Fold these 3 entries.
Entry 1:
Amino acid sequence: MEDYIAKAMVKNGQISIYAGVTTNTVEKARILHNMLPTPTVALGRVLTGAALMSQTLKAMNQTITIQIKGDGPIGGIVAVTDYKAGVRGYVHNPYFDLSLNDAGKFDIKGAVGSGRLNVIKDLGLKEPYIGSVELVSGEIAEDLTYYYAYSEQTPTVMSLGVLIGPDYKVIAAGGIFIQLLPDASEDAIVAVEQGISDLKPVSALINEGKTPEEIIRLIFPKEDPVMLGTCPVSYKCTCSRERMEKNLMSIGKEDLSEIAQDEKGAELVCHFCNKKYHFTKEEIQKLLAQSQE
Ligand SMILES: [Zn+2]
């Protein structure tokens, strides 16, 4: 199945629901970053959360960045999405693994530790909107749910899942994201609570071959959700030589002039896709001259 998100409205728009399959996107992240299972699951959940959250954006130049900074072995997680679920991300430490927790699941809480979740929404205005909450669980979905409740005062349900095969490949990944209007009726709240109470883990549903539309109907079997279309999800890095030049110029003249002395030049690696960019000594000296203008 291709990766995509289906959007729907329930109870005359009192409930918005987004369900997405992100298996290929998370597998691509695993390969790009050469990650072991625990970091794959952690980054996969954050990338999936970002993809789902992108559906609340309204314009082409808008982005959402999710940063998780904790004291666990993963060090930190970053994911960025454009307004159409083109996502990219990385973890600070991709090369560790933890044993499964008592429930037999990946110990994401143990990997993340305690710390903070930041959500940076760049809506194309002068200043980005930054919301920051303490991590309440470290399992990602609960933390994003808490962020919406606390920082945006929007009742939200988020469920994110990544299933890993015996060969460490991603066999199923996806999530659901439900938001209620602040003045939603009791009836709508009950419909959401009932819908998610007996729901299997979303990664299990995707592994069974359920489509995002089928997952939405499974959650609201009595409501006849109004389908509002779909959006493809993909892993999309935005790095380029020009961006790397800007990064080099932003480190400051002193550091740049030091690099400009090195006969070997400099190699910059994109955090998001591990692409290498090499700059010769001459190229760096040229950038240094430009930054002094
Ligand atoms: Zn890149």
Note: The chain has a mean pLDDT of 95.
Entry 2:
Amino acid sequence: MLEPSPLPPLRLTAPALTARLDGPITLSTLARLVASGAAVSKADLVQAAGLARTTVSTGVDELLDRGVLRLAGTRRTPGRGRPADRLALSPRGGHVLVADLGAHGAHLCVVDLSQRVRAHAHLDIEISDGPEVALAAIEAHLGTLRAGVAGDDPVRAVVIGVPGPVDGQLGTPVRPPIMSGWHGYPVSARLRRTFGCPTLLENDVNLRALGEARALPADQAPLLFVKVGTGIGGGLITDAGQLHHGADGAAGDIGHVRVRGGPDVRCVCGNVGCIEALASASAVARRLGEELGGEPTIADVRALVARGDPVVLRLVREAAELIGEVVATLVHFYNPARVTIGGSVAAASDELLAGIRSVVYQRALPLATRNLVLANSVLGEFAGIAGATVLGIERVLSPEGIGVLTAGA
Ligand SMILES: [Zn+2]
């Protein structure tokens, strides 16, 4: 088990306020502002929520009564006023369990409602073993992690990310190319039964996109996250800082965009010429095998990239050029403030980023690139758990969730 890793403060959004306020919306707004670190006193909340002093005061008192918030000392106020009570989420408010699955492993963690990572671990699993085997291992390890830190504090939500398309409403993967046996499997329903709380299923790259966007200043959205790993995937964050799912949840699934003029390589999806089949880390590994013989793995590619091996760097640059073409198209279409490149190859060297950047700035028009930031992920392998943390806490502190939230119950 690894040491708990501190995440940076993550911004949480609050529900839009209307003239006709009802209790749960007010409570949700106040709790989320405290949970995001945007407000630590009643005076902060009045300013941040734009609510009347009496509304804030009544709401805070109710959250204190219910044990959702607690008093955490005082804060000196400017001028001669008495020190203000400092508000914090109660550690008794419970936990969110997070599982971020990749093709060959999963990051698991237990976070509290103040965004503190209480425990985390990396679990070796093969997603191709199917849902029964993988989820049984994840449930067992989440249970162990939770028992180690949480005592009897309740689990409030479970968030699970998987490397494939999902139907978030049904809580099932939908024809995921690299997850054989998972199509239509009721992942959310199973974990909801196991842990007795709301469960959210999300695509892994969407989680990374959300985590990344919420760890950065608000002006870095809209944000496009491109993950180059076993496959290639994308996630879109709107200028309001929310995930853009599209009508059916498929938005951002860019791995199967066809590259015209590329070699006719068969993709895992059954089509030929997909960007994922030509420029993912697996594709680079395959090409390396063709040039040098043997069957290099993605881990080999990563190691060779980090070492600056000239053959693999050439292959990475060629991949970057193809990915850059796709990203340039997306930049025109979506005009993001930031494009984040993630995945193990990007983490091992700046070569991939540099290659993508040069094509994007060459191809895209000045208006779309004038203020564009194109950078590697700031959270690296923790981007997924950061996004899952945001989703989980926002669910627990949503108007629906907070209406029933009483600490210790
Ligand atoms: Zn494909």
Note: The chain has a mean pLDDT of 90.
Entry 3:
Amino acid sequence: MKRVPATFLPPITIDSRAKIPIHRQLYEWFRRAIVIGQMRPGQRVLSTRSLAAELKISRIPVLNAYEQLLAEGYFETFVGAGTCVAGSIPDDMARPTLGKGQKTFPEEIIRKVGLRRISRRAVALTHLPTQSWLNIVGAFRVSLPALDHFPLGVWSKLVARHSRKPAQGIMGYGDAMGYLPLREAIGEYLGAARAVRCDPSQIMVTTGSQQGLQLTAQVLVDPEDRVGIEEPGYPSARQAFLAAGAQLIPVPVDQEGMNVSEFIRHGPEARAVYITPSHQYPLGMTMSATRRMLLLNWAVRNGAWIIEDDYDSEYRFGSRPIASLQGLDTDARVIYVGTFSKVMFPALRLGYVVVPRDLLPAFCAARDAADVFSSTLYQLVMTDFIREGHFARHIRRMRMLYMERRRALVKAIRAQMGDSLEVIGAEAGMHLAALLPSGADDVAVSKAAARRGISATPLSTCYLRPQARTGLILGYGGTNAHQIHDGIRKLNLSLQGLRV
Ligand SMILES: Cc1ncc(COP(=O)(O)O)c(C=O)c1O
């Protein structure tokens, strides 16, 4: 390590054993000194020859570093005056000061970011509750399918088929709406399985349903517009609408889903409403036909929009699949959002939105401004997966598996926890909600369970307002019979541990 104090410069530190070349170290040093204000505009720097001599290094890396700094506009040269810090670098900008023990500029910036001005929307997003303790791959993780039952052999053959010899155009830019054959396959599936009425031109393939919600919020909602959401509801939908600047109206749900009369009473002028009518997230009820009609009438009368999130309707165990709300809509007021995260796997990041025809140009423009289009390779693979029958077969198998897992979970809860956990919701999906005894702190229970390797989501995080009853959301899709039994035992111990 060589340290050379210069009369007008703070010490330059060069590490000749470092992997970073010396010219790069010099370049970084000068750039940082200029950015944080240690070197001022117009200030002269040593000639390359002098600096090389001071540092006892060859002149070549110094020349290279100066050349780069000149090219990027940090330095300028004048005949007769040598090299200086560029005079055009603003001198009056408020610069972070490096305190004692603070070594690098970027770390300092990151630490200070909370103090600097960011958008009100970003502030609202960062204030949403985080549940970092749930980031464990333990039993009951919500939204996790049975990944060990996924037909990886078939999937990898299809991936190889399309990546070994890509068809023409596949590696270039694609359509913002998505790969047409996939949209046709999705359209057929939605028509047959979900009674959705659309043609492929209305289907946009998205990067998961989260992007579908984000684009929908961006297209339909202006900052300060009011948007109804279910209480309790899906936290990520809340995020999407907050990110668009919406004012959220939490509307309670009961046995028939969202209480539509109450919503109309509180937010008659709302721009939009977000609902999960087939399988309310997280409580699990189905919205009644009367409420569906009431909501559609409200949307038509007020020129408002209904965002239908149909995220796991493939899995109903006790009854036939529930038809979509979109299929009842005669005035093109419903935006239907779906996902492959539950029926395939979340990392695929493929979802879809069925868009009313007149909104298509706005959705395309919003998509162009976002990530342009979804990965073409996975769209091609997904198309073959559906067309060759693997999709329908996988859903059939998973439906049986999840039905068994749900029954095993309910049985284990009843046998081991008795009245301490009250299961609610329909026999459907990949998760269930269960209420804790009055007064229990579900976040504390969830944290205690996480310490035993269990991922139980607190129900309270799905509410905007404080509630009298709390509970847990338990995913069983990715949790096998043994893990269910063991997981409920540990959950019970966690709850009891908090009581004593
Ligand atoms: C209500 C709801 N909608 C949508 C999704 C799927 O989201 P994505 O497609 O972004 O993975 C989930 C997953 O947990 C969900 O619970």
Note: The first strand starts at residue 2 and ends at 4.
